[in-house]
Design a protein that fits this description.
The chain is of the alpha/beta class. The chain has eight helices and twelve strands. The protein starts with a strand and ends in a 5-residue tail after the last strand.
């Protein structure tokens, strides 16, 4: 699956390595080296995916990610030399679709790119793509649309993938590893914490009281489920 990919990386040598790997896989690639240029080029060129370095001059990658997410649904794969859990969670909360820590293997980066492009369709919709309703929550896999009652709710890809997966079998528990497979396609226990972040953000959007969820429930020691019936 080929795409238009923008690489925003302030290290020219690293950017060239990434560019060559992407081109070898058939992608059309544009390279920029600072945050302001990245925003301008993304608005002009409208890429399908942005490989975005966090540490860049002008505007950092976090600022760029926040702005891109407010303006479009472009896929964002963030690169960073900072490997703390706080950095990971912040990037995901800002709307990044994936997060890779430096130093990384170009082959791993290409695997992440392929996974994002393959799964950017709509998470894990059913084969027929029919809209479904679980309690007050409506999920339309084709339109990537969520409602609570009659009110639309904006969800990131990761959040939507979790709702889509859980809504296939209301009341059935999925582990974090299973949900991670739906959101990223890569079963890595070191990143299962990201599922908790998506769930926390989802509860803010779909629950009347996020501290006392009635829809998206925790099954302690196991994972999460979508309540088949809600009060």
């Amino acid at each position: 699956m080929c795409a238009q990919v923008m690489v925003a990386e302030d290290d020219p040598r690293q950017a060239e390595v990434v560019r060559r790997y992407l081109v070898a896989e058939g992608h059309e690639v544009v390279v920029v080296h600072d945050g302001r240029t990245a925003l301008g080029e993304a608005r002009r060129w409208r890429p399908g995916l942005v490989v975005l370095d966090v540490m860049m001059p002008g505007l950092d990658g976090l600022h760029v990610c926040r702005t891109l997410r407010a303006e479009s649904d472009v896929l964002v794969l963030m690169l960073t030399a900072r490997a703390t859990e706080e950095d990971l969670l912040l990037g995901l909360e800002l709307g990044a679709d994936d997060y890779l820590t430096k130093p990384y293997s170009p082959r791993e980066l290409m695997a992440r790119v392929r996974t994002l492009l393959r799964r950017s369709g709509r998470g894990a919709p059913p084969a027929d793509g029919e809209p479904r309703r679980v309690g007050r929550i409506g999920i339309d896999p084709v339109r990537h649309h969520v409602t609570v009652g009659d009110e639309p709710v904006e969800c990131t890809r990761g959040e939507f993938a979790i709702l889509a997966a859980l809504s296939e079998r209301p009341g059935h528990v999925l582990t974090r590893a299973q949900l991670l497979h739906h959101t990223r396609g890569i079963d890595r226990s070191s990143t299962e914490r990201t599922i908790d972040v998506h769930v926390m953000n989802l509860r803010r959007k779909i629950e009347a009281d996020p501290q006392k969820p009635a829809h998206l429930l925790t099954v302690y020691g196991v994972g999460y489920k979508l309540a088949a019936e809600t009060p």
